[in-house]
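Re: that backbone. Tokens:
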């Protein structure tokens, strides 16, 4: 009769082990699902950040094409991607900055000079914002001319 009791106790022990194994497998499954959801969010944020960066780069190209004009500008690439001149914290387009005349090494400083500009362009895609900053030198121009913009 003692043998029958041991078998009954072992069956209960097997049941506890099975439930613990089920709990462990459930936790592994939930962890895998949460990890997949988190990775999906990271990938989506990266895509939006890249789209915003490329919109900002397009805005910087627009700024380079507009030089020597320093007027503010904005535009749309796709339905959800926009660019504008200016820094990220500022809400609207701002003028490009004329940084003054500079000379090139090796050039006759009394003869030639270059004009230097700073371009800040901000791109936005579904709320993600990125900023690109360029410093551009154009020229040469005859030194001492009144050409500033």
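Recovered sequence:
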């Amino acid at each position: 009769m003692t043998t029958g009791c041991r078998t009954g106790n072992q069956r209960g022990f097997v049941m506890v082990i099975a439930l613990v194994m089920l709990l462990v497998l459930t936790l592994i499954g939930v962890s895998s699902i949460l990890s997949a959801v988190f990775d999906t969010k990271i990938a989506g944020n990266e895509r939006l950040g890249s789209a915003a960066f490329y919109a900002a780069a397009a805005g910087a190209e627009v700024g380079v094409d507009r030089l020597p004009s320093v007027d503010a500008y904005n535009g749309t690439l796709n339905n959800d991607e926009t660019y504008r001149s200016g820094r990220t914290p500022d809400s609207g387009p701002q003028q490009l900055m004329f940084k003054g005349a500079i000379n090139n090494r090796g050039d006759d400083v009394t003869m030639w000079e270059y004009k230097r500009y700073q371009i800040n362009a901000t791109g936005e895609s579904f709320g993600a914002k990125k900023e690109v900053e360029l410093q551009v030198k154009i020229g040469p121009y005859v030194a001492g001319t009144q050409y500033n913009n």
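The chain has a mean pLDDT of 86. The first helix runs from residue 2 to 66.
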